[in-house]
Design brief:
about 70 residues; 2 helices; about 25% helix
Length: about 70
């Protein structure tokens, strides 16, 4: 099952939101770290886990996830 998330550009990088579980957030952080991003996980809340990809554009993000098990949601 893919990791579902919402992605948006903040002007400083790409913010990944509405990630279902802390494990999914950590998996994403590790995935993007392996791709060379200094991804960080925001403090967890009950239902909205987040990852921030500093300095990344939406085009770069889209290319990195082309073959990944990630589903973008609105």
């Amino acid at each position: 099952m893919p990791i579902r998330l919402h992605a948006e550009h903040t002007g400083r990088g790409v913010s990944l939101k509405r990630i279902a579980t802390p494990n999914d957030a950590e998996s994403l952080r590790l995935f993007f770290a392996e791709k060379g991003s200094a991804a960080t996980v925001s403090p967890f809340s009950v239902s909205d886990h987040r990852v921030f990809l500093p300095g990344m554009t939406m085009d770069q993000f889209a290319k990195l996830i082309e073959a990944a098990n990630i589903e973008l949601i609105p």
